[in-house]
Amino acid sequence: LGRGHIEFSGHHGTWMPNDKLAQVFDKRFYQELVSRSWVPRQPSIDDPLKTDWTTGDPNTDRPKMMLHTDICLFYNIEE
After folding, report:
1. Chain mean position to CA 42
2. DSSP run (H or E) holding 69
3. What's the CA gap between 49 and 29, in Å, rounded?
4. pLDDT tops 90 at residue 64
């Protein structure tokens, strides 16, 4: 819950700064969703159709990440 692992899902990161906080689903999830500027990224060169969303520096070892299913709760995204 709350994080992606490149080996298992192909996505890397959490929506909070650490794994412990990312495993708590509370109002902070929605605060992060609406208060940050999320931009699409392609985490895999091998699969260009796989896209997730990031904010801040995507090249850090702990990038903030949300999936389409998260982002579409607040934004109208087009595929």
Report:
1. 11
2. helix 68-71
3. 25
4. no
